[in-house]
């Protein structure tokens, strides 16, 4: 997918996404048996309806007749199988024995256990006690039930009743793992007040959190009035490790949501300084915010992002491409007009006629890259020192 812009100045920006590679029809086979064995999905049900052929029935009757043919030389002597019957260790004997002794119809599979139905409304302590009694085999019922609620995206109120039940049994204390699981549900359902309550509990009880809890708290706080506290949590992460691109993405989007462009841009530069490739939705957020911005200063920032995409061969998806197109068309006084088009195999755009620059390296670029790898990677000094935490 490609789009181009035309306006009072020549400033074409082209992106090309990989075309969808559709799969052709599967190769047909000469043998119906081979198709069944290879498990072609659209024919499995058809094969399951086929009845046993008469030839197979005949063979089965013959084997049963052989099995019934038994000689008795004396009374009390052991029974001997007919001489025509194969030795018990002969090739194919096991298969024939299984055909001669079909499984009894009385042998049925054990019934499948009923699927556990999660509560759809908050339960009181007595109801949770009874439910726990029904699931004695669960080593840690409280964490297990919350995990099931996470999988099914249950209501926060139901999960909160679990915490109230646990707190009542433990002098008002809820374990760390249970709090983090509950926090996940609160963030998923965007329950701001509950997120802040959990944040206050964790802040008072724990000096340090693990990365998953930090990530959830940052994501939960960015759209609240206390979004700057998410930046403090980001600083806590920096004390022990480099924050992830998701952490930076959440903080940048929170800053843009609250109209603080400088904080967002500084975080973006910090992200690049760690040699971390930003998420495309992070870059998209800058363009979405820029639709209502006037002035060259912010426009220059967005052009820097476009150059970053070009230099690192990052190709935006359709949603991101729409954001870029909308921003160009919103620039006052420029009269940009964008439209989606395609690029020929030769690299020529069908819309503007320009040729997309090649991604193949020139001889000078190749030599530069080779020398850089030799210098920085192969002859780069003591590799052990580079990989230690210090």
From TrEMBL:
Subcellular location: Mitochondrion
Enzyme Commission identifier(s): 3.1.26.5
Domain PRORP, first and last residues per copy: 343-390
GO annotation terms (biological process): mitochondrial tRNA 5'-end processing; tRNA 5'-leader removal
Cofactor names: Mg(2+)
Listed InterPro entries: PRORP_C (IPR031595), TPR-like_helical_dom_sf (IPR011990)
Keywords, in A-Z order: Hydrolase, Magnesium, Metal-binding, Mitochondrion, Nuclease, Transit peptide, tRNA processing, Zinc
Entry GO terms, CC: mitochondrial ribonuclease P complex
Primary subcellular site in the record, as a coarse category: mitochondrion
Presence of the UniProt keyword Metal-binding in the record: yes
Top-level taxon of origin: Eukaryota
Record's keyword annotation contains Thylakoid: no
Catalytic activity, reaction form: Endonucleolytic cleavage of RNA, removing 5'-extranucleotides from tRNA precursor
Gene3D superfamilies documented for this protein: Tetratricopeptide repeat domain (1.25.40.10)
Molecular function GO labels: metal ion binding; ribonuclease P activity
Family: Belongs to the PPR family. P subfamily.
Annotated protein name in UniProt: ribonuclease P
Native organism: Monodon monoceros (Narwhal)
């Amino acid at each position: 997918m490609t789009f181009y812009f035309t306006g009072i100045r020549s400033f074409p920006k082209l992106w090309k996404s990989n075309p969808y590679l559709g799969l052709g029809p599967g190769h047909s086979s000469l043998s119906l048996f081979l198709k069944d064995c290879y498990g072609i999905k659209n024919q499995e049900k058809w094969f399951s309806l086929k009845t046993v052929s008469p030839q197979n029935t005949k063979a089965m009757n013959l084997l049963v007749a052989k099995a019934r043919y038994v000689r008795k030389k004396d009374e009390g002597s052991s029974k001997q199988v007919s001489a025509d019957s194969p030795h018990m260790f002969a090739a194919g004997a096991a298969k024939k024995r299984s055909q001669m002794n079909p499984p009894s119809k009385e042998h049925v599979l054990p019934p499948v256990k009923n699927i556990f139905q999660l509560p759809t409304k908050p339960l009181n302590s007595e109801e949770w006690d009874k439910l726990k009694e029904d699931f004695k085999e669960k080593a840690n019922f409280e964490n297990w039930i919350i995990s099931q609620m996470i999988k099914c995206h249950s209501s926060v109120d139901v999960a909160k009743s679990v915490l109230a039940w646990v707190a009542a049994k433990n002098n008002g204390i809820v374990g760390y793992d249970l709090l983090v699981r509950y926090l996940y549900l609160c963030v998923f359902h965007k329950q701001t007040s509950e997120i802040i309550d959990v944040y206050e509990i964790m802040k008072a009880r724990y000096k340090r959190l693990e990365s998953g809890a930090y990530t959830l708290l940052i994501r939960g706080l960015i759209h609240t009035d206390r979004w700057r506290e998410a930046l403090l949590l980001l600083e806590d992460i920096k004390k022990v490790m480099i924050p992830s691109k998701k952490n930076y993405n959440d903080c940048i989007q929170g800053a843009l949501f609250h109209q603080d462009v400088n904080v967002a841009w500084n975080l973006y530069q910090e992200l690049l300084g760690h040699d971390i490739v930003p998420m495309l939705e992070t870059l998209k957020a800058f363009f979405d915010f820029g639709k209502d911005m006037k002035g060259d200063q912010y426009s220059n920032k967005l052009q820097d992002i476009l150059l970053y995409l070009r230099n690192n061969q990052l190709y935006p998806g359709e949603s991101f491409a729409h954001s870029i197109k909308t921003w160009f068309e919103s620039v006052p006084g420029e009269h940009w007009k964008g439209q989606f088009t395609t690029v020929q195999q030769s690299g020529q755009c069908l819309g503007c006629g320009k040729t997309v620059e090649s991604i193949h390296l020139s001889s000078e670029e190749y030599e530069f890259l080779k020398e850089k790898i030799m210098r920085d990677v192969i002859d780069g000094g003591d590799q052990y020192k580079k990989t230690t935490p210090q």
